Amino acid sequence: MEQQELQRLKILKNIFPEDSWSWAITALRRNSAIWTEFENPDFSQTLIQDIGIEPQEWTPGRIGAVLLAKDIEEEIPFPIDSFDGLSAEIKGIVHQTYQEFEEKESETPDLVNGFLLALALLGEKGTGKSWAEILNQHRNRINWQTPLVILFNLVKDPAAYLRHLDPELALHVLLSNPSTPESLVDILVEVVAYLDIGDLEKWFKVIQKEVPDLVAQVAQALLSSLDLTSGSIQEILNLSFLNSLAGHDDKALKLLEKAADQNQKLHGKVTANLTKVKSHLDESRVSDQAWKDLKGSLSKDDLPEENLTEVADIINSLLLNKQYAAIGDLVEKLPNPLPEHPELLIALSEYALEQDQPIRGEQLALQALNLSLDKPRENLSSVLLKAGLYRESAQAAQLYLEKYPNHLVSHLNYVEALRSQGNYGDAAQSALILTVLFPQDLILQRKLAGYLEEADDWQEALEVRAAILTKQQTAIEQETTLNTSLPLNDLIAFANCAFSAKQYRRTVSACNQILAQDQENSPALSLKGKALCNLGQDEEGFAHLNRAVELTPEAEISWLTLAECQKGSGLDNQARQTLTSGLTAASTQAMIYYQLGKIESDVTNHSRALEQFQKAFTAAESETVDQRASYDIHLGISKSYYALGHHDQAGVNLKEINDRFPANFEANLLYGKLLLDTKNPHSALPYLIQVVDQDPDSADAFLYYADSLLQVGRDPLAATAALGKALSLDPENEIALVLLGDAQAASGDYN
Predict the structure, then answer these.
(1) Domain range for 240
(2) Phi, psi (5° rounding) for residue 352?
């Protein structure tokens, strides 16, 4: 699935300028009727020919017109001034399509039919109907999102059109059209101007969800453009709300207090208190009376859903400011059992996790998930991830991304949930999507490069690392400051990635830039040294490596890198001596012990290897070791036990690995093999299915999978196919050839 997505993104990357990707490509992704068209390689070329390459011109309406014109071989004038101006043939097609879809209530129109239905709705407007009447008539046609998105490009007053839609649908329509952030702010201001406080809150809640970076800008623009005074209660509430969103918390609080003095019956006590809590002020500055009113409102057994949502928002604000005592004060007043309100349960789950109550946190999060399957919730994947429920977090994130495909937090949670299960490959593929959608966010790009590196996708990671440096170089050239050097951390990260991608000359070049700034930079000396060794310049390479050890003997990585190059040069005994010296000098030892274990394992000294891996495990418990290193240590122990024939201990360790990293290839493969060896093919099969689902370049993976199928008497045709794959990877594999005969006999295929 991700591969298809990446292919579409690659097409658009090559058409649009990079500074438009975050708003142009994200717009086109929102509508599946448009997005699926990019599976056709000729589609983008047709659009370039008929529309050009300006991203803002690639609107759903314009694209629909191009496709319709191609279908009927008649030019479609665009923009379309009125329905009456269309040809009789087009009008006839529109009427026919409208009648067909009136009878097919459950069918979702594709892009061309969506364009025709949008024209039909435009025609209805021409008969004298208002937008309110037309939209109300089709309010329950949830499958008509595409026509409503396209209609935005056909109407004369887009802001008035959006105002008639539900805020969530309106934002979907607006954001499905490629528009710069500045253009979005302008039209949103036009849409929400003069709304009352209730409608204003609804709109801003959706804006916060969809485009949070624009909230303060829209609020400030409204404050600057509207002629609001603090006269009526309505105007005071609007002013307070907008000031709060624009970041003027003190003004918001003063206005709200003024409203409270004038009229105690505001738009719900909870809303008044919510505004105060969200002012991000200290607890002591929240009105005692307002707090009492809020707690009093919670004592009712049948709290309205709107109030429960506002209570959840209050708790989230308090969590943000770590005001746990205040949350506890509120929680005591909530009814027992808790209302089945997902947002409230999510907020309470996070509170429980913050209070070191993991079991309650998990229970509340899972309850919220069960209540959210038909209506995805924004923060649910974050709480599930925090609770360590990685599969459920990935599920919640996927559900939310199906509705909001560009939601950054959900996408990051999905990636993090995958990698936390050991599924580094799929995590990296998903991360690649984000590198396109948010190319200017360097903090995010660094994080995404790390995900790619975890998956050993070094070439893609190197492209991201290079892009980070290019953007920073451009920024430096545009500044007038004296600083002309690239950040050392990014250069080190690039050099490290370049080495792993076997780009040794680029590694040396990056290290030279670092050493020009800091000639005694130990990581750069290490990296340059091992790159030079791989370029055949051993003498100079080892000089750099030894210098790094001299400068930072306390750094574990200095010893590890020197030993790695010694081992690569066939100097195994020197590598052992280096690592042993490192155990005395370095401040951490886990990975030194791990490398010593690997050296012993390579020479089949499995007892000694096990001893070293176990020491690595003990050291890692008191050191900061990343997830991948922790997994490697566990797997090293398991492999040693397996090689020594200690299947019980190996099984216990592998089960623990698979519980923690359920999607990991190596652990699943070894565990499946162990279960086959111990005559337990039924238990082996689920693990081996996960292995072959990753389509690995491993003959053993397909061999063991086929063996398990044959042993349980299941699907000999699938076993035959798997063995064919194994033999394509290893044509001389004798076991595969024998099993292939068994599989063909079982399926009755003797050819």
Answers:
(1) 180-267
(2) -60, -40
